[in-house]
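Archive entry. Fields below.
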Amino acid sequence: MRTKKWVPYVPIFPAVIFIVLLYGYPIGLTIWQSFHEVHLLNDKMNFVGFTHYQKIFIDPGLYQTLAITVKYTVVAVFLKIGLGFLFAFLLHVKIYFKKAFRFLILNPWAIPQVAVSTLWRWILDGNYGYLNYYLVKLHLIDKPIAYLSSPTWAFFSAAFVDAWLGISLVSMILLSGLEAIPQSLYEASRMDGATEIRLFKDVTIPGLKRVFLSVLALVTIWTNSFNVIFVLTQGGPMRATETLILRIYQEAFQRFNLGISATLSVITFVILSIMTVIYMLGMKENE
Amino acid sequence: MIEDLTPLMTDDFKKERIDSIMETARIDGKQYGTPLGISSRALYYRSDLIKTPPKNWDELLQMAQEVHKKDPKVYGFVIPTDLTAGTDELLNFIYQGGGTMVDDKGKLTMDSKENIDTLTFLSKFKGIIPDPISMKRSDQSKMFINGNLAMFISGPWEKEEMDKNKDKTPYEVAMLPKGKKESITLVTDSYVVSSLSSNKELAYRFIEFMGKADQQRPVSKEYGWYLVTKAEEADKRFKEAFNQPFYNIMKLGHAEPKVSNWDEFDKSFTIAAQKVLSGKANPKEALEQAQKENQQ
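PREDICTED_STRUCTURE:
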């Protein structure tokens, strides 16, 4: 008996409806609002066409924000992957208390981002923070460092805290990648006289390439932390940490420009969609 | 979207209230709110380190330099510049410098000569004040109590904590040091009625009831606010020595700027001051940029 073509679609229909409502509606509404002047206290919306897009693209502030976003992403992703790989590698080799270390490394991921960021704000406080207190006490610095109020320090502090939160996941994914490399490859290479450096270069790195590229793409897409920056610096000092996601929030809830905020959200959505497509194409190629 | 209360407001109610304070909630002659609370500022100073408090800006700068030079662990003065409360504190200097942020016609005057001169004066504190970028108003008293600060400007709410530590860090209060003139920012909180309310008259009657001196007095006293009704002028607490510097300067006060988007104004002005105090921009550049951001 032949099954009718539409029958397989019936069971997935509720899921499709759910996804459309959960994702499609807000995305559609945001796109709709980007073409309208939205009034907060009533339901009025005036159609303004591409006015918001024009306004944003001629605003030098957008390019400054984009530059900060790109720099922030590069630094945070570099730290996440660099330190994530280091921890994954340390957990992969034979060490004592391996399970305890695995548990510890997962901790930052298990704590809510706002709580972690608040803790770091206390640690990094320029006047009363623990970090300055101990560094001064140990005579490693002469006077306190303004981690959150100097533009350069604040930028790197926020990127570091962002990375600190993401290291757990990266190291766990990379660790699973390391453990998936067949031991026989290492054994055969050793029998051929390969040194540890050669093993790392010719066995570990090629074996990890696919996982590494997936992690790189995912972490780049996910590094759009609103929570960390909002709690630590609120985009300051002097806009040094004002990334695109912060700007979207500020336009909506500080300047009450819902239309402009929606337009910036659409631009972010397009950028992230392009990155997702690149990631998916890369995955397909690797298959 | 706030209701104009002018048509609802009776003459008797208006007569009971201080007009210069009512002005802070008035735009283009329309009364949009009735102030329920007003705060004031004075100079707190370490009476063991400073014998006579500074009377003007030059003396303030000179004393701040001297204190810090004598003991580098103690800052002479501090300028709060963080985004949550910096603007109101910086506006005190702007008004004392003879400047405004908005003129009578509602036009922005952020980059006026007077304001550039004021920020030029404040830039002289560079290097002798702690954290010129994100110093919180609330951190000042902590620094003072810890013995790291000799002078700061704040409201009467600091008294309780300061009194607790008076043995270690003795203090007195004085009038704000004078710039080109004496002035202060009048920061008020007001009762308002939403334009969307379906019971506007009833809401207004409640405001009028709460605004009577008998209801107002315990609220003001509890929060450490100053007077908003004429009947409170006779109250004993305003005759106390501690309250005198706060009370006297209020008569010379200037309302906060009535700008269309306070958050935007607040942020751009504070950032301008942060840039100047940290040496990242000169006063003219910083204020022109702030003015430009508010005109967009």
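CURATOR_NOTE: The interface with chain A takes residues 1, 83, 130-131, 133-134, 139, 142-143, 196, 261, 263-264, 267, 271, 274-275, 278, 280, 296 of chain B (CB under 8 Å).
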